[in-house]
Specification:
Blueprint: E1 13-17, H1 21-32, E2 36-40, H2 44-53, E3 70-72, H3 75-79, E4 84-87, H4 94-101, E5 110-113, H5 126-134, E6 141-145, H6 150-154, E7 159-164, H7 168-177, E8 183-188, H8 191-214, H9 218-238, H10 249-260, H11 265-274, H12 279-285, H13 291-306, H14 311-321, H15 329-332, H16 355-369
Parallel strand pairs: 1-2, 1-4, 2-3, 4-5, 5-6, 7-8
Antiparallel strand pairs: 6-7
Helix pairs in contact: 4-5, 8-9, 8-10, 8-11, 8-13, 8-14, 13-14
């Protein structure tokens, strides 16, 4: 009896807006996952290089891009027929880019934010800007975060990420399209925690870069990372995030990667600040947007609105303003008083062992078994 042939599954048509290092890397992830990908680059010459030479020499030097990956500088062509649209533009330019894209978006398209920032002036997270500008159902919006250093992933070094949406079905649909042998994608429905984890770790990474530039060692950096995790968890929970998300890939995982890697733009910017460069000089030297620098002011405004203390981030603000010597950032850590303080950790009231030990155990469990530590996380 002859076997019935099954028709090959149609490739999902996706668009990626933004051809910087992360946008191009994610376009590669999607193409390697089997999607039909069109990458939008603002500059025609960059789009031409990606399409013809399969290279992006400006942002991913030495990386060969998939043969199937196409690029264009025309938004209408990039978005034509796209079922999923991944957005990777500077956070402060998101609103204007969405307004330009809106006429060409399919009404049922899923919009996925790859960005890690908050909008100046409004304090809105990127998914909130998407919802406000495009006026689409929140179930059509997803965000992706995690320990995702672009160049390492472009070299196909294995990593994991989290897709989050208020709709578990949407998160799963995006994860299906954005998973391959070197990029494993988990899902959750804690959009607030997933987004704020990606934003807040940038600020701590700037602080780590500052003390690295000054010449301080591993003890200082470990202290700032540990106290920084408490700080960003306090903030995220105050805005409705699940605390468990902050000990997962979008929180602790991303924090570790961004703080310790010289590939991190935020770490690099902080290191330049620690070496004595002004904020203006640092911005000039960086080839791409450094979201951590842009997010310090808006995050501190949001923190004050909820009565959340963020002394490490406040000290970063003072270094940026030139009112605090970079060498003085680390000794203060989280308090201006000389009185002994109790070590308040991210889950003081939880019984059963040291809180930070439990946080690391949860993170290790995620990496070993897939999915987040929060009950809402599912793979």
């Amino acid at each position: 009896m002859a076997k019935t042939k099954t028709a090959p599954r149609a490739r999902t048509r996706v668009a990626v807006l933004g051809a910087g290092s992360w946008g191009t890397t994610f376009a590669k992830i999607l193409a390697d996952s089997g999607a039909d990908v069109m990458l939008w680059a603002r500059r025609p010459e960059l789009a031409r290089e990606i399409s013809e030479a399969k290279r992006n020499s400006d942002y991913l030097a030495g990386i060969n891009l998939p043969i199937s990956l196409r690029a264009t500088s025309r938004l209408d062509l990039a978005l034509a027929g796209a079922e999923q649209v991944y957005v990777s533009v500077p956070s402060q330019a998101l609103r204007e880019n969405l307004a330009a894209a809106q006429p060409h978006l399919h009404a049922d398209a899923t919009v996925v934010s790859l960005m890690k920032g908050v909008e100046k002036g409004t304090g809105l997270r990127m998914s909130e800007v998407v919802a406000e500008v495009l006026r689409i159902d929140p179930a059509q919006i997803a965000v992706i975060s995690g320990p995702n250093l672009a160049l390492e992933i472009a070299k196909e070094q294995p990593t994991a990420a989290v897709v989050s949406s208020t709709s578990l079905e949407t998160a799963q649909a995006v994860a299906m399209v954005a998973s391959n042998p070197y990029f494993r994608t988990f899902v959750n429905t804690d959009v607030i925690g997933t987004e704020f984890g990606g934003v807040l770790k940038n600020l701590i990474a700037v602080a780590i870069g500052i003390v690295d530039g000054v010449g301080y060692g591993e003890n200082t950096k470990a202290s700032i990372i540990t106290r920084g995790l408490v700080e960003i968890t306090d903030f995220a929970v105050a805005y409705g995030a699940a605390p468990e998300t902050m000990s997962g890939l979008a929180g602790l995982g991303d924090l570790i990667a961004t703080c310790q890697s010289p590939l991190s733009r935020n770490n690099t910017a902080g290191r330049l600040l620690g070496q004595g460069y002004s904020e203006a000089d640092v911005v000039k030297q960086m080839n791409q947007t450094t979201e951590g620098l842009a997010s310090v002011g808006p995050i501190l405004e949001l923190a004050r609105a909820q009565g959340v203390e963020m002394p490490i981030v406040e000290q970063v603000r003072q270094v940026l303003a030139g009112t605090l010597d970079p060498r003085d950032l680390a000794p203060h850590l989280t308090t201006d008083t000389d009185e002994p303080q109790g070590e308040r950790t991210i889950d003081d009231k939880t019984p059963g062992g040291g809180p930070l030990r439990r946080a690391f155990q949860r993170a290790l469990h995620q990496l070993r078994h897939g999915g987040g530590s929060a009950p809402r996380d599912r793979s």
